[in-house]
Amino acid sequence: MSFQDILLQQLANGLILGSFYALVALGYTMVYGIIKLLNFAHGDLYMLGAFIGFVVLSFLSAFLGDSWTGILCSMVLSMIAVGLLGVLIQRVAYQPMLSAPRLSILITALAVSMILANLVMALTDGEYLAFSTDLGYDGLELGNVFITYTQMVLVGAAAVLMIALYLFVHKTMYGKAMRAIAIDQDACRLMGINVNRIIALTFFIGTSLAASAGIMAGTYYGSIHFFMGFVVGLKAFTSAVIGGIGSIPGAMLGGLLLGLLESYGTQIPFIGTEWKDVFSFGILILLLVFKPTGILGKTEIERM
Amino acid sequence: MRKSLLVSTVCGVAAGMLLFGQVHAADLKIGIMIPTTGSEATSGKDMENAIKLAAKEINEGGGVLGMNIVTMTGDDACDPQQGTAAANKLVSADVAAVVGGYCSGATLPTLKIYGDANVPFVICAANSTKLIDANMGNAFQINSTGFDQVNTAVELFEKKGIQKIALIHQGDGYSEDLAKLTREKWTAMGKEVVAYEVVNKGEQDQSALVTRIKSKAPDAVFWTAYYADGALVIKQLRQAGYRDLIAVGDGSNSPKLLEIAGKAAEGVYCFSNPTVEYLPAAKEFHAKYKQTFNQEPDAYAALAYDGMNLMADAITRAGSTDKDAIKKALAETSGFTGIAGPISFTDKNTLARSNFVTLIAKDGKWTLAE
Questions:
Q1: Do B198 and A148 lie within an 8 Å CB cutoff?
Q2: Closest Cβ–Cβ partner in B197, B199, B228 for A223
């Protein structure tokens, strides 16, 4: 492979990785935007998305086979299930803590994260589960660069979801209400906006996006385990901070940027792939020191 | 008449008692040390079964030097303290020899006890290199030490005409040592290691690694770590269009690897301990074991079976149960063919060859490679 080949191949790889980060980062940023909560359980909802998708898919494959239809159906069902779970978590764990000091709700989020991860660990005995889908290895070969159709579909699906979200937030009444709540909750209440319902909706959308990333990762990589959400959760958080936490386009940009940074960073000679996480978190530290508001963040940011 | 009847009866009974007494005195007591309780109990009991099966067959065939083998089990529970207790129990029961040893950790402290009592000990499964240094000359390891698979791996690469290899490990002691030893051996042969990579555990996206490997264009990739991440590496290498040889170490010897990697795993090579299912010579043993115990033999059944047979063979060759004679006979073993392959020893009492077998993934299953 020539230098250009490596650059091009890693562009593709970085975009795929970045799409996953971006989808998870969106939930982080939306939740932070609306109730100023860093939902550390978000990575575990990504993991749950993969597991619920796995269960649904094993059930559906009896009727539909391991086809794209089956994957799509299980993705939608898993998104709805995890979305509802997200709302439930918000109602049970976060709602009562909203008026408590910020730190208490942050610790609650950590607790939720541990409960979810350990629950899945107990249910699966900590085993790796294998997705039976084999999406095939056909793809485009450009010289030495190889991109499978599956990879293109994944990036495409992520793009569709992100565009849909952007349109929803900017073109609908619900989206407008979300943005309004991010600015001033009390004023929204006075204007007759059902704040609790909109917060629930935000959780639903945020967590179902994470679930979609989870099941995409599950079908793409082929194996899932209870701990898979941990690092992705941290990377998504990093993406959200890079883009400017609270900003939706920021989360998308941050995710893609982080994916590309990792995939190029690990190609530097004499620095092995084991340094991948060092890149991400090193950048997070630098950013927090020099530009804590992120790329698209302003000091007095319009959240969402 | 009456008197002679009485005499003959008395004589008959006396002779019978004498004979019976002789048969009783001619028992050959062999100790079995394995874990029958605790986390490793399943494997331990499986080895015990295999050893007892071997003993039964030997007895049916006339025993050893006319003696009948009786076994006595000491449970080491895969624990150093329990192992010490088990070894003391066997030694004070005055066993002629000991067969067994599953957990290296539990076997290690017993070597001194058996050594002091000068009891010949065939270690069937435990294969830590630490056992070599603790050996007082009376213990014999019939399982390859973990890193013998380097030889098996290099042999395979040579046979396939490979020049450039890529090694990937995960930074833990086992996989790193295996990769390092392979690199040393390969470069010593004047061949090239084009990539030597480390990846983090639990990492799902291996695309960066795959690009690095592909850009170096190796003829073979050797993954020395475990199955869960190995499956992802294999899958992503194949997805990226890498079509040359892939081999994985025994840490990846799991059906789960094939399940996760799916079609991508077809044709992948794997190195494995000699387990019954992959040994052509073990077919008869396999059937007998299943018939006797109504279950499938586990990973070390074949080695345990060989261990007992080797011990019986050595005692026969020694011509007595004198401990030094048995030790000498064991050390001189050559051309003993067990179901897991031929056995002979190095001057350190370890197996003289690598007993790792090479497997290939075919139709979603590991099968013996030719």
A1: no
A2: B228
Contacts of A99 (CB under 8 A, 6+ apart): none
CA dist B359 and A143 (Å) reads 33
The CA–CA distances, whole Å, from B258 to A71, A148, B169, B227, B263 equal: 21, 21, 19, 9, 8
Distance CA A207, CA A204 (A): 6
Residues B74 and B32: beta-carbon distance below 8 Å: yes
Out of A132, A146, A262, whose CB is closest to B208?
A: A262
Check CB contact under 8 Å for B261 and A128. no
- Is the predicted pLDDT of residue B21 greater than 60, yes or no? no
Is residue A168 pLDDT above 90, yes or no?
A: yes
Q: How far apart are CA B81 and CA B58, in angstroms?
A: 32
B232 and A223: CB-CB below 8 Å? Answer: yes
Residue B187: what are its φ and ψ, rounded to 5°?
-70, -30
Q: How many CB pairs under 8 A join A and B?
A: 98
Sort residue A285 into left (φ over 0), alpha (ψ -120 to 50) or beta.
alpha
**A130 contacts in B (CB within 8 Å)?**
231, 256, 259-260, 262
The Cα–Cα gap between B120 and B99 comes to 9
Could you say which of B200, B214, B228 has the minimum Cβ distance to residue A1?
Answer: B214
* Cα end-to-end distance, chain B, whole Å: 76
| pLDDT over 50 (residue B25) | no
Is residue B22 over pLDDT 50?
no
Between residues B15 and A177, the one the model is more confident about = A177
Alpha helices in chain B, H assignment, sequence order? 2-25, 41-60, 80-92, 104-107, 110-117, 130-134, 149-159, 173-188, 207-216, 227-239, 255-261, 283-293, 301-318, 323-331
User: In this structure, what DSSP letter does residue A95 have?
Assistant: G
Specify whether the CB–CB gap between B66 and B319 falls below 8 A: no
Interface test with B, best of A1, A8, A131, A223 (most B CBs within 10 A): A223
Averaged pLDDT for residues B226-249: 92
Q: How far is CA A196 from the centre of its chain?
A: 23
User: Which token pair is B335?
Assistant: 């051309």
A contact residues 110-129, partner B, Cβ 8 Å cutoff: 128
Structural domains of chain B in order of their starting residue, each with its CATH number: 10-144+279-343 (3.40.50.2300), 148-272 (3.40.50.2300)
